[in-house]
């Protein structure tokens, strides 16, 4: 597998005191540091692995690079004329090589160079909070460096895979998303345990690159999304050859031949595969970073909208990104990071109150207000699923007066131009009293590129009457906005 050892070089000055210390140099930590630096603070960032974090090397970027080749091939096969020019199968080696280029061969030199250019100091090692604004860093040689922050410490350690309590699982050495996205040779078969976004995307990747895929799920695939999304993705994966098995593994063993055997219920036949991939969710990475030493119980960690942790004497601690559990998505973590970095700098400058009771105004630069009911997300499966805001179930449970409006995306003229036999669906969840859209779901080829317009409509609470005057260009798939509004008006 890949070498995840970070380089030994720090990029710090001689001092061990900064205005802000950030623990974790993934995308979230980098953004906290960047925005605080732009606000005039001196910032150090601590990282034990690769600068750039999970998204750059084992999640967002490599997984989307692995998915892209099959997406392009399918797109060409769906357009007459282009389809006749497409012969042969995917070049798996070339796909893996392209993936590796996006990870810079798991080398973070360019990311370190970016930190230097931004004026952010890097301290290599494992960071742990040991007291009020104090962080100890255990370096590669075992020595400990003692850091002090004059204003704040921001913890941006992300999340780690959740390993279910299955007998024999640890001994079987299962893969997580890290191993799955950094694979150098495709296994003949894989069993994926889980039914969420990661499981769905990995099933898409591995099937498109030639592996036999079995997905073990407890209920429906993508169960937190609208049924129009989960049904379409599961149907497509099944058609591609992915096998779905309902149940929960009771034990896993790896034989002398290297293959794994997964036992389910007493009446179910065991599943055999070359590798087992665990994709049963992620949880905040709070282990051994010293939260308890400053009075914070990790499972009870709470932050305000500026990401300041509640209950810490002096109000100097921030928790940003996956670690706070609000929205485990890279783009939401970076959004939180912008708010936190600006808030930390403003509080240090005295332009934003540091009082424990002070809360930033919603929708200000210092508040991640959209975390609550306005989160956009894309599942890069076949078909794609793009969502923003509340599902119909979530909106109803929250007490909103709801009307659901569906439309066949394949019936739009622009969709027919986009691909022969285009299939897709759109669902709008409408607040019937305020006449605004609470949430939208798009299902179909390339729908991720339609999401931001919906995000603006949901975040901006644009009324249906105003949306009527937002004229979609013809012939594009965006004409579905007009058709949804017509359906809401006249049916």
UniProtKB/TrEMBL annotation:
<dbReference type="InterPro" id="IPR050151">
    <property type="entry name" value="Class-I_Pyr_Nuc-Dis_Oxidored"/>
</dbReference>
<dbReference type="InterPro" id="IPR004099">
    <property type="entry name" value="Pyr_nucl-diS_OxRdtase_dimer"/>
</dbReference>
<feature type="binding site">
    <location>
        <begin position="157"/>
        <end position="159"/>
    </location>
    <ligand>
        <name>FAD</name>
    </ligand>
</feature>
<dbReference type="GO" id="GO:0050660">
    <property type="term" value="F:flavin adenine dinucleotide binding"/>
</dbReference>
<keyword id="KW-0285">Flavoprotein</keyword>
<feature type="domain" description="Pyridine nucleotide-disulphide oxidoreductase dimerisation">
    <location>
        <begin position="375"/>
        <end position="481"/>
    </location>
</feature>
<protein>
    <submittedName>
        <fullName>NAD(P)/FAD-dependent oxidoreductase</fullName>
    </submittedName>
</protein>
<feature type="binding site">
    <location>
        <position position="322"/>
    </location>
    <ligand>
        <name>FAD</name>
    </ligand>
</feature>
<dbReference type="InterPro" id="IPR016156">
    <property type="entry name" value="FAD/NAD-linked_Rdtase_dimer_sf"/>
</dbReference>
<dbReference type="InterPro" id="IPR001100">
    <property type="entry name" value="Pyr_nuc-diS_OxRdtase"/>
</dbReference>
<keyword id="KW-0547">Nucleotide-binding</keyword>
<feature type="domain" description="FAD/NAD(P)-binding">
    <location>
        <begin position="19"/>
        <end position="332"/>
    </location>
</feature>
<feature type="disulfide bond" description="Redox-active">
    <location>
        <begin position="55"/>
        <end position="60"/>
    </location>
</feature>
<keyword id="KW-0520">NAD</keyword>
<dbReference type="InterPro" id="IPR023753">
    <property type="entry name" value="FAD/NAD-binding_dom"/>
</dbReference>
<dbReference type="Pfam" id="PF02852">
    <property type="entry name" value="Pyr_redox_dim"/>
</dbReference>
<feature type="binding site">
    <location>
        <position position="281"/>
    </location>
    <ligand>
        <name>NAD(+)</name>
    </ligand>
</feature>
<feature type="binding site">
    <location>
        <position position="127"/>
    </location>
    <ligand>
        <name>FAD</name>
    </ligand>
</feature>
<dbReference type="GO" id="GO:0006103">
    <property type="term" value="P:2-oxoglutarate metabolic process"/>
</dbReference>
<comment type="similarity">
    <text>Belongs to the class-I pyridine nucleotide-disulfide oxidoreductase family.</text>
</comment>
<dbReference type="Pfam" id="PF07992">
    <property type="entry name" value="Pyr_redox_2"/>
</dbReference>
<dbReference type="InterPro" id="IPR036188">
    <property type="entry name" value="FAD/NAD-bd_sf"/>
</dbReference>
<feature type="binding site">
    <location>
        <position position="64"/>
    </location>
    <ligand>
        <name>FAD</name>
    </ligand>
</feature>
<keyword id="KW-0274">FAD</keyword>
<feature type="binding site">
    <location>
        <begin position="194"/>
        <end position="201"/>
    </location>
    <ligand>
        <name>NAD(+)</name>
    </ligand>
</feature>
<dbReference type="GO" id="GO:0004148">
    <property type="term" value="F:dihydrolipoyl dehydrogenase (NADH) activity"/>
</dbReference>
């Amino acid at each position: 597998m890949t070498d995840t050892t970070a380089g030994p070089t720090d990029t710090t000055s001689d001092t061990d005191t900064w205005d802000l210390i950030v623990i974790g140099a993934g995308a979230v930590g980098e953004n906290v540091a960047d925005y605080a630096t732009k606000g005039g603070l001196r910032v150090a960032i601590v990282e034990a692995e690769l600068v750039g974090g999970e998204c750059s090397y084992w999640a967002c970027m490599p997984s989307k690079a692995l998915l892209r080749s099959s997406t392009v091939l399918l797109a060409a096969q769906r357009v007459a004329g282009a389809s006749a020019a497409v012969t042969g199968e995917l070049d798996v080696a070339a796909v893996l090589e392209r993936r590796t280029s996006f990870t810079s061969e798991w080398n973070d030199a360019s990311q370190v160079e970016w930190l230097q250019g931004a004026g952010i100091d890097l301290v290599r090692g494992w960071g742990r909070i040991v007291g009020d604004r104090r962080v100890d860093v255990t370096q590669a040689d075992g020595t400990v460096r003692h850091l002090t922050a004059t204003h704040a410490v921001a913890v941006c350690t992300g999340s780690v895979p959740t390993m279910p309590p299955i007998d024999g699982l640890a001994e079987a050495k299962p893969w997580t998303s890290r191993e799955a996205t950094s694979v150098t040779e495709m296994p003949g078969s894989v069993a994926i345990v889980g039914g969420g976004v990661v499981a769905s995307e990995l099933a898409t990747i591995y099937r498109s690159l030639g592996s036999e895929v079995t997905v073990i799920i407890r209920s429906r695939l993508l169960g937190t999304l609208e049924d129009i999304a989960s049904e379409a993705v599961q149907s497509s994966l099944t058609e591609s050859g992915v096998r779905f098995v309902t149940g929960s593994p009771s034990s896993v063993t790896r034989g002398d031949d290297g293959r794994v055997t997964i036992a389910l219920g007493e009446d179910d036949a065991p599943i055999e595969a070359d590798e087992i991939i665990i994709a049963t969710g992620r949880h905040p990475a709070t282990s051994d970073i010293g939260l308890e030493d400053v009075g914070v119980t990790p499972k009870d960690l709470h932050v305000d909208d500026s990401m300041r942790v509640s209950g810490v004497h002096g109000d100097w601690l921030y928790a940003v990104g996956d670690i706070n559990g609000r929205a485990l998505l890279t783009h939401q973590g970076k959004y939180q990071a912008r708010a936190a970095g600006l808030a930390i700098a403003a509080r240090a400058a005295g332009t934003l109150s540091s009082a424990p009771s002070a809360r930033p105004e919603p929708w200000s630069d210092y508040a991640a207000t959209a975390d609550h009911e306005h989160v956009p997300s894309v599942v890069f499966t076949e078909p794609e699923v793009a969502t923003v805001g509340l599902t119909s179930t979530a909106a109803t449970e929250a007490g909103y007066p709801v009307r659901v409006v569906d439309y066949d995306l394949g019936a739009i003229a622009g969709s027919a131009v986009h691909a022969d036999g285009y299939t897709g669906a759109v669902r709008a969840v409408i607040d019937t009293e305020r006449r605004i859209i609470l949430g939208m779901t798009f299902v179909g080829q390339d729908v991720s590129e339609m999401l931001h317009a919906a995000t603006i409509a949901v975040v901006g609470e644009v009324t249906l009457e105003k949306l009527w005057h937002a004229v979609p260009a013809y012939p594009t798939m965006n004409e579905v906005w007009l058709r949804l509004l017509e359906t809401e008006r006249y049916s």
